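Name: IF factor
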Amino acid sequence: RNGMIGNIYSMGLALQALEATRKFYAPRKWDCAQAFSVVSAHDYQQPMAIAQVLPALVGRTYLDAAGLDCAATEATSPNRQLPLSPVLGTHGVPRAPIEVHYCIKNTLQGNFFHYCTLVTVPSGSTLLRVMEVAAEKDPQNFSFQTEQTSWGTYVTSIHGLAASTEDRTYWQFLSAGDALDEGVGTYKPRAGEHIQAVFSTY
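Structure predicted for IF factor:
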């Protein structure tokens, strides 16, 4: 849809696969330009997603790695930029505060619950920061746990209710009823946005 193949995280491998197998699926076509415009417009933050999308952006696939001549490649160091402060924007100007409605909900197992709070964070803050502020305000209801994965921060537990591969449960994050395309460590809520964490099954 609109150039998206799966979600923003699956785009890198999907573009590589479609490019590598182009001659096998003719005459069926895919809109290469539209797919690349989706990738180009997205601000990738997670190393794994970047590693998968970069080969496609330079017209290569992981299959080409076996034929690379590393000795012929001139080593260059990219210019490094310091990360922006979560409170200060460019040129040290404070970021304007925004309010985000954040709710957690479980109607799946154990004692059901549904708690909501209004969180104020600097604009440009991630959803993870929204969750941290909510937990600081009301740790009894909004405490949570995470683990770091190659795809970024993964929420393992909220309000003491842990996700389980055995039970096929997880915490799903929604905005106005739609699943988020990004993880909590990279998604940046808008002012007035309603974010819901719902204990779900797959």
